[in-house]
Amino acid sequence: MYNFIYHKAESLADASMKLKGADDGSVLAGGMTLLPTLKLRLAQPSDLIDLGPIGDLRGVTVSSGAIIIGAMTTHASVAKSADVRSAIPALANLAEGIGDAQVRNRGTIGGSVANNDPAADYPAACLALGATIQTNRREIAADNFFNGLFDTSLEEGELIKAVSFPVPSKASYEKFPNPASRFALVGVFVSQTANAVRVAVTGAGQEGVFRVAEMEIALSSDFSPDAVAGVKVASDSLNSDIHAGADYRAHLITVLAKRAVAACK
After folding, report:
1. Cβ neighbours of residue 219 closer than 8 Å, sequence gap 6 or more
2. Which among 199, 125, 115 is positioned nearest to 150, based on CA atoms?
3. Residue 265 banded pLDDT, cuts 50, 70, 90
């Protein structure tokens, strides 16, 4: 690692102030991406602002038909939350399938969403459930938040406070994981509400997480696995790497969408 100045933030306002005062500061949440990046000397921040001491950023609350999860809530805490398991069991199951026990007990939902790794699980949940990302400045709809590979709508100095997930009538997440990292080669999250059906895919797109409009239309008329069985996603906009080719990922999207619809509850 390179040398840096370490700060403990006492509040979100304090973190924002320390970040603003740094020459080239970075925010530390769970550190699941940042610390390996520092160890590999791929980043050289002047200051590291640790959000760990801010207790207000942890926890799950239920409010007006939504589950609100604090940015520093770990994946393990989301998976174990009785409120999440009762209201959106698909979200709890998603969190339970992230990485390994060490990652789940250190990684945070805010860090994952802000990082927007193209193979991460939470971005699919955010898009499919129509989540709202709450920051220290504003509220951002998930549809307007994810801009591309490791890119979001967060502005300089803007920090995530919480993510609010509307409670669906049905939802499910199916993932084909990389056996080593548990990142999604492809993951498909399907949700149904009184007003809409949403289908989001992670792990496959060249630009990261995306929705599949054709599947959403088909499921709006007939919410069954057969409705999406004939929907094929074009492979020309999908990833092709050492783990899986674009054609294979395209095939997996349809297979996992059928499984997700069948498992919806």
Report:
1. 190, 192, 197, 199, 227, 228, 261
2. 115
3. confident
Annotation: CATH topology of 59-166: 3.30.465
| Length in residues, the chain | 265
For residue 221, give the amino acid letter.
S
**What pTM was estimated for this model as a whole?**
0.96
Residue 52 has pLDDT above 90, yes or no: yes
Which of 3.30.70.260, 3.30.43.10, 3.10.20.70, 2.60.40.1120 would CATH assign to domain 5-50? Answer: 3.30.43.10
Average pLDDT taken over every residue of the chain = 96
- CATH architecture entry for 170-263: 2-Layer Sandwich (3.30)
pLDDT at 2: 84
CA–CA distance, 96 with 261 (Å, rounded to integer)? 19
At 73, the amino acid letter reads T
Q: Is the dihedral of CA 33, 126, 225, 218 positive or negative?
A: negative
d(CA 84, CA 92): 6
- pLDDT tens profile 220-237: 999 999 999 999 999 999
